[in-house]
UniProtKB/TrEMBL annotation:
Stored InterPro entries: AAA+_ATPase (IPR003593), ABC_transporter-like_ATP-bd (IPR003439), ABC_transporter_ATP-binding (IPR050763), P-loop_NTPase (IPR027417)
Segments forming domain ABC transporter: 8-236
GO molecular function: ATP binding; ATP hydrolysis activity
Domain of life: Bacteria
Main location: membrane
Name listed for the protein in its UniProt record: ATP-binding cassette domain-containing protein
Length: 296
């Protein structure tokens, strides 16, 4: 099951709609783990996912998934991945178990279908609800069933398009745990998200899609560091910020800074967040200065 080589490779990949480019010159190599494709609405996340899952052809360049070319080895790609789209694909009239058994049968599992369905219900915490029609389920549970259905075949790579959009915080956390569980079982996950916090908390690798290209790429930590140093934020007794001084975060450097501050001054040490990364990178791309951008 485990796959040791790159799960996704893109070489100068481009997509357009009519004359309008969605992205151009996308080049990347992603190792096994949880990869987040982060970007605002319209950034091209779904388009990239559709290319990687063979649902759409690239307009230029090449992409490989699990080492297979998405155009020339479509069948091999499809056989080795699971895909969950943005909208649920489960049948609302059937029960949860019936949905999974049906999907397993369609996938050719035959007599193993019931066993596989039960294992998935257990894995995704849906056993108690399994006998009830899905139309009575919460959105979060339906989404989990959707993912379970995509995984009736054991595959090393799962693609998810905005799996948590519109979910309440509790369901979102539950889904994160499920996805981490998959990663722990050596199933890699490529997901798209509009939420920085989600990318930061969940992914091993974050690719920020913006303005037709990859605006940033790395671990959540690397992205945060790319945005700049931590800062000592000093406040006077009224709570007003009187200074923001860059620091490497070491005790000696913080001491050097605090030695210059008067009595009654309080400090916070602030590390840049991925939100800061996002705002500063997108502002740079838009030709604005960070902080100048209107609230999205
Ligand atoms: N079927 C389509 N026809 C024309 N333009 C499209 C179509 N689908 C997407 N686009 C355009 O391609 C760009 C990327 O879309 P998409 O990949 O859906 O972005 P995301 O998933 O990040 O929101 C957008 O600017 C969108 O308007
Ligand atoms: Mg989309």
């Amino acid at each position: 099951m485990a796959y040791a080589d790159a799960i996704v490779e893109c070489i100068d990949l481009a997509a357009r709609f009519g004359p309008e480019p969605v992205f151009t010159g996308l080049t990347l190599v992603a190792q096994p783990g949880i990869v987040a494709l982060l970007g605002p609405n319209g950034a091209g996340k779904t388009t990239l996912l559709r290319i990687l899952t063979t649902l759409r052809r690239p307009d230029a360049g090449a992409a490989r998934v699990l080492g297979f070319d998405v155009v020339r080895q479509q069948r091999e790609v499809r056989r080795n991945i699971a895909v969950v789209g943005q909208f649920p694909a489960v049948d609302n009239v059937l029960t949860g178990r019936e949905n999974l058994v049906m999907t397993a049968r369609l996938a050719g599992l035959g007599r193993r279908s019931r066993g596989r369905a039960d294992a998935l219900l257990d894995q995704f915490g849906l056993t108690d609800a399994a006998g009830r029609a899905v139309n009575g389920w919460s959105g979060g549970m339906r989404r989990r069933l959707d993912i379970a259905a995509a995984l009736v075949r054991l595959v090393p790579l799962l693609f998810l398009d905005e799996p948590t959009t519109g979910m309440d915080p509790e369901s979102r956390r539950r889904l994160w745990d499920d996805l981490r569980g998959l990663a722990g079982d050596d199933v890699s996950v490529v997901l798209t998200t509009q939420y920085l916090y989600e990318a930061e908390r969940l992914a091993d690798r974050v690719l920020l899609l913006f303005d037709g290209g990859i605006a940033a790429d790395g671990s959540p930590d690397q992205l945060r560091r790319a945005v700049g140093d931590a800062r000592v934020e000093a406040r006077d007794s009224s709570g007003a910020v009187i200074a923001e001084i860059p620091t490497d975060g070491s005790a000696s450097d913080v001491r050097r800074i605090t030695d210059q501050l008067g009595a009654g001054v309080t400090i916070d040490i602030r590390r840049p967040t991925l939100d800061d990364a996002y705002l500063s990178l997108t502002a740079t791309r838009r030709g604005e200065r960070p902080g100048e951008r209107a609230q999205a």
